[in-house]
Design brief:
Chain lengths: 526, 306
């Protein structure tokens, strides 16, 4: 440990700053990465982690400060220069080209005119060596998220970098895939390469990282050895204050069946979509059913058939409070007391250029016709009640905004999501379906949203939460089901569900191979 | 025999300008830029080619002038949409209007002048072979150039590293930027290539097809070229097929009208458009293949966040 610290850091930043308009995304960052260490960069969404690494990789130009490589100041003006320096990067939102093959994707990141055939061979060799199997001739569009990440890693390794930056690499992986990734990282470290590992998952960081630098609001709030810290001390550095605990207590016995999905199948609508196969799901009043799964396994397709955005041929396939609803559209289902919150905030859940009150009317004009509209068939907007409802929702969900009624797109992701969830909760729906409720939302807003979902179930509604975030799933669900390649596993009580089992289900191991008793059976017994 | 050869010859001549303009636009769209100004660039090429031919006495210099003019006017589109991130649809439409107006002004004094035709290839012996002689060895230079362009573009896009880079930008410009590819510079080059091709296509009209200048002489061919690119799912050989099909039905319906068959002439005039659309829709029914070939970032302005 000591001699490592005596070495000149491989990469060091001094007072690195990036300013976007009036926002100081990174504000005087000091960071030092020693050769052969796995260094964690911890922080909440919006803490400035991604901005920092984009400067290190030459994608963004620093507004101030300097970067030192092996003790010498360097200017990294482009990703090409970063690669030439010895920095490789695996992006969070993959920088892959879906229409191209794996080999073509890799070729694009390499300089010079290497023939495609040679790249295929080299990629295959490296991927086997690091335990990341890849087929160079496959099209990226056909690959799972985990496989896509492998392309990014192999692409970075082909350039033989001394420092590899991984931006939130496990956020899209199953626990088993993540374990494989950690093995790869250990191998890289053993070869003397350094890794800058960006994450907000404390458990992972404690497991694999030698040192950690913690960011909050663009500033360094701590540098430590994560193994000597507790999760809560790390969390405090990350978040600042304590984060409110969600109280799931008080979820009573489930009541009547409100949503019943029976042998629902839906063909994929585009080549990149997922086919839903034989989905069965029963949700009762007072229940929160969480549907876990790795992105791209049919979550949005399931949401679309539940909301009525896509109707199914058999009306009996979906029953809402006993009424066949398979062929009903969104508005008809909303009139039956359902509410929906899609994943995409901009353009799906809200029109970014329209005001909050406008968005409120757009989603609830039919269900709240009496309150919001006037003038009979003319359907004139009743501005007073709409403004009052907007205000009520904003204060109930603590939506922070600079104007009374700003355009939806001007709100930060967390605040807009709070408004969208609040907009649906405000009508006290009997059934709420929400897809990725806290994706990209900061911890404070996320805990508020989760609490609101639990409270809605307590008041006797049925809640379906589709989420990739396992912490969230365990925090709020009364039952958990897993979606994998368009198939839904039987819901199992959250109390008896384990992360390992979810991991297996995510990987497609259905019907509990190796489990003596199917916990779902036990759950249905009472 | 001679009649068949003549009909085939006219079909090829009708298809050539469509093919050249469409191949140029294909490269532009593969890079993720939608330039709706093909018609305008073509008509500028036609008038500049004609004017330069009359002024210099050389149709070869005229052809060169048309190419340069097309590329220059596309540069205007490039500055507006790439450097200033203006809306591509609106800018492209304006370019067509500008081209039609500007060409009318440039060409005013040339209306009615007799033009000089680009000389056709003539190889003693070979060009006189029955049926195929003139088709293979006796055509105008722009025809041969059009085939060379199609082959060259197909090879460039799918066999070279630079072509791969161009397709990558069209698929996802943000990722391309993150990899260090200079998105804007490559799009400029693609746009200017498209402009040069449209200019050459215009030159074919005023130097080969009908060696004279008439206002609006492109008569909507730029729009057909645009449609061909989309219906051919952005693939060069399908563009060639579409262009020849369109040419064949256009010439065929003229002969049918001349023969006076009992079908309304309006229907026959619409037939080339209908036939091309129907055939190309049928061959592009494989949605997976179409989606794979559709440039995903088509028409979206790219502003790097530096």
């Amino acid at each position: 440990m000591n001699d490592r610290q005596n070495l000149i850091p491989l990469l060091e930043t001094k007072g690195l700053t990036k300013i976007f308009g009036s926002l100081r995304a990174c504000d005087g960052i000091d960071l030092a990465i020693a050769p052969g260490e796995v260094h964690a960069l911890l922080g909440e969404n919006g803490a400035g982690k991604s901005t920092l690494v984009k400067m290190l990789f030459g994608v963004l130009e620093p507004s101030g400060g300097e970067i030192l490589w092996k003790g010498r100041p360097v200017k990294i003006g482009s990703p090409g220069e970063a690669r030439a320096t010895g920095v490789g990067m695996v992006f969070q939102h993959f920088s892959l080209f879906e229409a191209l093959t794996v080999a073509e994707n890799i070729a694009l990141a390499l300089d010079g005119n290497v023939p495609i055939e040679r790249i295929s061979d080299e990629a295959r060799r490296l991927s086997v060596e690091y335990g990341l199997p890849l087929d160079p001739s496959a099209h990226v569009a056909d690959l799972s998220v985990g496989e896509r990440q492998r392309i990014e890693i192999v692409r970075a390794l082909l350039q033989n970098p001394e420092l590899i930056i991984l931006d939130e690499p496990t956020s899209v992986l199953t626990p088993q895939e993540a374990d494989k990734l950690f093995e790869t990282l250990a191998k890289l470290k053993a070869e003397g390469r350094s890794v800058l590992y960006i994450s907000h998952r404390l458990e992972e960081v404690q497991r694999i990282c030698d040192r950690a630098t913690v960011l909050r609001h663009g500033k360094v709030t701590g540098a430590c050895d994560p193994r000597k810290e507790t999760p809560s001390s790390l969390a405090r550095m990350m978040v600042g204050g304590e984060v409110a605990e969600i109280t799931g207590a008080g979820l009573g016995e489930p009541g009547e069946v409100l949503v019943e999905v029976a042998s629902l199948s839906a063909p994929a609508r585009t080549p990149f979509a997922v086919t839903l196969k034989d989905v069965d799901l029963t949700v009762r009043a007072g229940e929160v059913i969480a549907i876990a799964g790795v992105a791209g396994n049919g979550q949005s397709e399931l949401f679309d058939v539940l909301s009525g955005e896509v109707t199914v041929a058999n009306p009996e396939a979906i029953r809402i409070a006993g009424t066949p609803a398979g062929r009903l559209g969104i508005t008809a289902r909303r009139l039956m007391g359902c509410s929906f919150v899609p994943e995409e905030r901009h353009g799906h859940a809200a029109v970014p250029t329209m005001s909050l009150s406008g968005n409120l009317v757009l989603s609830r004009y039919a269900s709240d016709r009496k309150a919001f509209l006037t003038g009979g068939w003319l359907g004139l907007i009743n501005n007073g009640p709409v403004a009052a409802a907007t205000k009520r929702i904003s204060s109930a969900m603590d939506v922070r905004k600079s104007l009374v009624d700003p355009p939806a797109g001007s709100l930060s992701g967390g605040n807009l999501q709070k408004f969208i969830v609040g907009r649906e909760l405000d009508r006290q729906p009997r059934v709420l379906v929400v897809n990725q409720p806290t994706w990209g939302v900061d911890a404070g807003a996320a805990s508020r949203i989760r609490q609101a979902l639990v409270d809605l179930a307590k008041s006797g509604s049925a809640v379906i939460v589709i989420s990739q975030d396992l912490d969230e799933v365990f925090e709020i669900a009364s039952s958990i089901s897993v979606i994998n390649e368009g198939r839904l596993s039987k819901p199992e009580p959250a109390a008896t569900m384990t992360r390992e089992r979810i991991g297996l289900l995510m990987g497609g191991f259905h019907d509990g191979a190796g489990h003596g008793v199917d916990p779902a059976e036990a759950a249905h017994a009472h | 025999m001679d009649i068949a050869q003549n009909i085939l010859l006219t079909i090829m001549t009708a298809a050539t300008p469509l093919l050249i303009a469409a191949i140029g636009e294909l490269v532009v769209e593969r890079s993720g830029v939608l330039n709706l100004g093909v018609e305008g660039m073509m008509v500028i090429g036609a008038v500049c080619g004609f004017a330069a031919t009359l002024l210099t006495g050389s149709p070869w210099l005229g052809m060169l002038a048309a190419i340069v003019a097309g590329a220059l006017i596309s540069l205007l589109f490039g500055v507006l949409t790439l450097s200033l991130a203006a809306n591509q649809v609106a800018t492209g439409l304006s370019l067509t209007l500008l081209g039609l107006g500007l060409s009318g002004m440039i060409g005013e004094s040339f209306v009615g002048s007799a033009g000089i035709k680009l000389p056709s290839l003539s190889i003693p012996g070979l060009s006189e072979i029955p049926l195929v002689g003139r088709l293979v060895f006796g055509q105008d230079p722009i025809f041969y150039l059009s085939l060379l362009l199609t082959f060259g573009v197909a090879w460039f896009l799918f066999r070279t590293r630079a072509g791969l880079t161009l397709r990558a930008i069209g698929d996802n410009h943000a990722s391309a930027h993150a990899l260090g590819i200079d998105v804007i510079r490559i799009r400029y080059l693609a746009v200017m290539f498209g402009g040069a091709c449209a200019g050459l296509a215009g030159a074919h009209l005023s130097l080969v097809y009908t060696p004279q200048w008439v206002e609006n002489m492109t008569a909507g061919r730029g729009w057909i070229a645009l449609a061909l690119v989309v219906f051919a799912s952005w693939r060069p050989w399908r563009v060639l097929g579409g262009a020849y099909l369109f040419g064949a039905v256009s010439i065929g319906q003229l002969h049918a009208q001349a023969l006076g068959i009992g079908v309304p002439s309006q229907f026959l005039s619409a037939l080339p458009y209908l036939a091309t659309v129907v055939v190309l829709v049928i061959i592009s029914r494989d949605r997976r293949l179409t989606l794979m070939n559709t440039p995903a970032s088509l028409g979206q302005p790219f502003v790097p966040d530096r």
